[in-house]
Amino acid sequence: MNTQPPKTIQPAEGKLGILLVGLGAVSTTFIAGVTAIRRGLARPFGSLTQMGTIRLGKRTDHRTPLVKDFVSLASLNDIVFGAWDIFPDNAYESATRAKVLRTEHLEPLRAELSAIKPMPGVFEQTWVKKLNGTHVKRGKTKRDLAEQLKDDIKSFSDRERVNRCVVVWCGSTEMYSPLKPVHQTLAAFEKGLETNDPDISPSMIYAYAALSLGIPYANGAPNLSVDTPALQELAQKNGAPISGKDFKTGQTLMKTILAPGFRARLLGIEGWYSTNILGNRDGEVLEDPGSFKSKEESKLSVLDTILQPELNPELYGDMCHVVRINYYPPRGDNKEGWDNIDIFGWMGYPMQIKVNFLCRDSILAAPLVLDLALLMDLSKRAGLKGIQEWLSFYYKSPMVAAGLYPEHNLFIQETKLKNTLRYLMGEEPITHLGREYYS
Ligand SMILES: NC(=O)c1ccc[n+]([C@@H]2O[C@H](COP(=O)([O-])OP(=O)(O)OC[C@H]3O[C@@H](n4cnc5c(N)ncnc54)[C@H](O)[C@@H]3O)[C@@H](O)[C@H]2O)c1
Question: Is ligand 1 within 6 A of the CB of residue 251?
Answer without folding.
Answer: no
